[in-house]
Amino acid sequence: MPPSAVQQRPQDPGPARMRRSLGVKDGLAIAASSTAATTSIGIGMGTLAAYAGRQTPALLLLAFLPILGIALSYARLNRTEPNCGSGYTWVGRSIGPWSGFLTGWVVLVGNVIFMAYTGAVTGSVVLQFLNKLGVHRVLGLRLDPAATGISTAVGLVALVVVTVTAVTGVRSATRMQLGLLIFEYVVLLGFCGCALVVGDQPFSLSWLDPFEIGSPQALAQGMVIAVFIYWGWDAAFSVNEETRSASDAARGGLIALIAMLGLFLVGAFAFQRVMNTGELIRNGPQALTFLGGRLAPEPWASLPLAALMCSAFASLQSSVIPTARGALAMARDRTLGPVWQRLHPRYGSPAVGTLLVMALAALLAVLAVGIPKLNDMILTAVNSIGLTVALYYGLTALACAVRFRDGWRQGPVRALRDVVVPAASALALFGLGGYLVWQYATMSDHFEATPDNGWFMLLLPALFVLTGLAVAAWAKWVRRAPYFRTGRGTDADAIPLPMDGESGRLARPSEG
């Protein structure tokens, strides 16, 4: 057939597929937004101080070591097999389908819980803004930023807004996130830099000594929270099908992780230069606002609060994106229902899955209103997610060591990078998680829904795992998913591209 005839023939768009239009900058924006440095600093520093005291900078450095090993494992696996399922796909192929499914499941559940509590945090920040404007009551309802109920109600509105932007495609979402990131980082670095200079709390080298932390349990608990604070850089690997090159996703994730280390250390030092340990713990989610009030008069003192709001919104949006795409990868393998792989005919995004993720997060946020104080809700969520993050990070690193175990034959450098570092990182996180599970199991003699009750803290991660195993059993024996026979994920490139919404022609891998 002549070439001209081929060009003139109407083309069947076929099933929708996500477009390869993202580069390093976009992956970096998604990873940085998902890690949410401003939110992590504004809220996490007080939580870490409750366990590590003035040794919070040491804890952040210590937790970075295994996380860096995990990130190198992600990058190595991604070069070999780019897939939006990331750990779910890699662990299933290297270790086994049950472990792989569990990896994907805890990522999904952890992200939904994160979105539920981040929505409440976003609502709390909005309420703080209203309080600053002199609005403390509406229709007789007290607008208390520390109250879980009203914060959750406002946060649900924010969740709907970011979900709509996520449905329209990752490209539009990352454009918005880049603007938010620039603003919040300028504000964060400006105020933290000022705090380092004018703070009246004397600096001490003991801040960098992890051996000064009170007890092994406090060290382990603080490490899990620090791992959670770093969590999010791997979101860059969830948009492989929308990234022009697998190396772009890897570079975006690694750059974001290293940038987060620098920002977290600057934030930790700055907070400790201005506040003592008691003030850090007492202010909790309002710690960044407290810092702004200490360093500047109004209206400049409200800038950190504005940056925190931008960070919370961006974090919500960047959490919706990888969660829906992880579910898409699992649905392609029939380990989840087909509804999760329905893509928008124009934007190529998993629109139905994105809406379902939002609905589940909203439901969970409403149920969490039973924990009356926002601080308690945050601590409960962080502890629960931290344990599951340690689990799936460890499984992914172990998958890297197993898949590339022949690296010993290719020289010591390859063996160190592909086998030793991933295996050591996995063992560190498994040991940390196992120690905390034992601590939680033995610290309480009764059950109570509070963040200081060991049985309650174990209940949520245990439910994650048990429900995951139940869903896996259904997929294996009822859906008869081929994933449980081979452990291999579906090749994403087998799915045709969607029609380009603007030109009416078929989109190519380099377009979007």
Q: Brief overview, please?
A:
With 512 residues, this protein is mainly alpha-helical. It contains 18 helices and two strands. It has a two-stranded antiparallel ribbon.
Please give a handful of descriptors for the protein shown.
disordered N terminus; 512 residues; two-stranded antiparallel ribbon; 1% strand; mainly alpha
Write up what this structure looks like.
The protein has 512 residues and is mostly helical. Helices cover 68% and strands 1% of the residues. The protein has helices spanning 3-8, 24-35, 37-52, 56-80, 87-94, 97-132, 148-167, 170-198, 216-230, 246-274, 277-283, 287-295, 303-332, 351-367, 374-403, 412-443, 454-477, 483-486; strands at residues 137-138, 141-142. A two-stranded antiparallel sheet has the order 1-2. Helix 3 (37-52) runs antiparallel to helix 9 (216-230), helix 3 (37-52) packs across helix 10 and helix 4 (56-80) packs across helix 16 (412-443). The chain starts with a helix and ends in a 26-residue tail after the last helix.
Topology:
Elements: H1 3-8, H2 24-35, H3 37-52, H4 56-80, H5 87-94, H6 97-132, E1 137-138, E2 141-142, H7 148-167, H8 170-198, H9 216-230, H10 246-274, H11 277-283, H12 287-295, H13 303-332, H14 351-367, H15 374-403, H16 412-443, H17 454-477, H18 483-486
Antiparallel strand pairs: 1-2
Helix pairs in contact: 2-8, 2-10, 2-13, 3-9, 3-10, 3-11, 3-13, 4-9, 4-10, 4-15, 4-16, 5-6, 5-15, 6-7, 6-13, 6-14, 6-15, 6-17, 7-13, 7-14, 8-10, 8-13, 9-15, 9-16, 12-13, 13-14, 15-16, 15-17, 16-17
